[in-house]
Design a protein that fits this description.
By secondary structure, the chain is α+β, with helices and mostly antiparallel strands. The chain folds into 2 domains: 123 residues, no CATH class; 123 residues, OmpA-like domain (60s Ribosomal Protein L30, Chain: A, 2-Layer Sandwich). The protein has 6 helices and 10 strands. The strands form 2 sheets. A 6-stranded antiparallel β-sheet has the order 1-2-6-5-4-3, covered by helices on one side. The protein has a 4-stranded mixed β-sheet with strand order 7-10-8-9. A hairpin with a 5-residue loop joins strand 1 and strand 2. Helix 3 packs across helix 4.
Length: 279
């Protein structure tokens, strides 16, 4: 009888622990989960959903409802408030993450979505934040995208030969801040190659032509591509000592695509700077 009593008590204890998270709320992170290294969690939350994929895609949007399909290493991390704590409200959770991303130099693509992006070294980390109405549950979907590697050889002779043979050459080693004409430091090796080519051939003059994808309006993209081309010219003149008379900036926006704009891979190829031989 005593053994039977102990067995019943043991089963009751096991049942209690197995169901306590349902009765009193989850108190611990689910097994195998962790915060993303870039963004932690708000106080009094635990992870109740976690998925990490080596390669997947996700849709992100900006305030003009332009869609960006980003591919790369993906995390889905869901958080729920511990039992006994007052929900902070949807706005507070949103503001917490928006302010954090701003503090680390990120950009807010849309503050109602919420969609954000942070550039760190050679990677872009895109962030989709969903929050329920009272803030008791929220989810981060994050995709780490590796910026396209420089595709030209660090060889001014080869670059010059391609330019003379074809009359133009596409450059993918020049990087700009998101939605901006500000050059990133990763562009320096490519700018150095271009400047070496120009110093070796003093008769060579070029158009520096900016190209964009077709995301957004035609007028905006043409203006952005012009400013980006001018940034490249200014860098070559002011940093690398090339005469401004040999360079002319032009922006054509999305009007000369080399791939479809209906895929991220195509849009990535269309976002480029071209060198065009000038007579």
């Amino acid at each position: 009888m005593k053994k039977k009593y102990l067995l019943v008590m043991l089963l009751l204890i096991i049942f209690f622990y197995a169901t306590s998270s349902l009765i009193f709320g989850q108190e611990q992170d689910i097994a195998g989960s962790r915060d993303h290294p870039l963004l932690g969690r708000m106080d009094h939350y635990v992870i109740d959903e976690y998925k990490e994929l080596d390669y997947d895609s996700h849709e992100f949007y900006d305030e003009k409802d332009n869609e960006y399909i980003i591919e790369g290493h993906k995390w889905i991390i869901g958080y729920t408030l511990k039992e006994g704590y007052e929900p902070p409200g949807q706005l507070k959770v949103r503001k917490n993450y928006i302010n954090t991303v701003k503090e680390i130099g990120g950009k807010i693509l849309w503050d109602r979505g919420v969609y954000m992006m942070v550039t760190l070294e050679e990677k872009e980390i895109w962030i989709d934040l969903w929050v329920d109405s009272d803030g008791s549950d929220y989810r981060l979907t994050m995709v780490e995208k590796t910026v396209m590697e420089q595709e030209i050889q660090a060889d001014p002779e080869a670059l010059s030969e391609d330019l003379k043979t074809e009359g133009h050459v596409a450059i993918y080693g020049i990087y700009f801040e998101y939605d901006s004409a500000t050059l990133q430091s990763e562009s320096e090796p490519t700018l150095e190659v271009i400047s070496q080519m120009l110093r070796q051939d003093h008769a060579l003059a070029m158009y520096i032509v900016g190209h964009t994808d077709m995301t957004g309006s035609l007028a905006y993209n043409r203006e952005l591509s012009q400013r980006r081309a001018e940034s490249v010219v200014n860098a070559l003149v002011n940093t690398y000592g090339i005469s401004s008379s040999r360079l002319q900036a032009m922006g054509v926006g999305p009007l000369c695509p080399i791939a479809t704009n209906q895929s991220e891979e195509g849009r990535q190829l269309n976002r480029r700077v071209e060198l065009v031989e000038r007579y």
